Amino acid sequence: MSKPQNTPTSVAAERLPELAPELELLAAWMDGVFRVPFVGWRFGLDAILGLLPGVGDTASSVASLYILSAAHRYGVTRATLLRMALNVVLDTVVGALPLVGDVFDVYWKSNQRNVVILKRHMLAAQSEQGKLQRTDRWFVVLLICLLAMLMIGSIVVAAMLVTWLLAAISNFLRG
């Protein structure tokens, strides 16, 4: 009788959960299931639902939140969750803008981005976790700065529009 051979298996491979297939399927349907002929651009239900004012972007955000909650169940870091949440927020906020948001939905693909982030963190070895956390933190800081500039810019534009509107009303009443 021969002695059974022990094949060494990676400790990381033993402890890593497998990504639920419905997450990749959901991301594909939301962000890239359709292809524009001859051009090759891909888009999904997110871009189509975005054509419905208000309701569409909210409905597509529910799918994004499902992927985010799955990341929480897989135990990714808070910085990673925040990064994924900011992808969803950016997609929802910019996606709500008429026409510009619809084009943005075709390009940004937040669901597919979030699934890639989730897979990367699930497969990373312990030695890589620190580097990924630093990368996530820098991304979050830069995204927060970008969103802050966007908010400031929208406030400035709103103030300019109100000033212009008040001037137009004043001119109308005088003349």
UniProtKB/TrEMBL annotation:
Keywords: Membrane, Transmembrane, Transmembrane helix. The keyword RNA-binding does not apply. The chain crosses the membrane at residues 47-68, 138-167. It comes from the Bacteria. InterPro entries: DUF4112. Pfam families: DUF4112 (PF13430). The keyword Ligase does not apply. PANTHER family: MEMBRANE PROTEINS (PTHR35519), PH DOMAIN PROTEIN (PTHR35519:SF2). This is DUF4112 domain-containing protein.
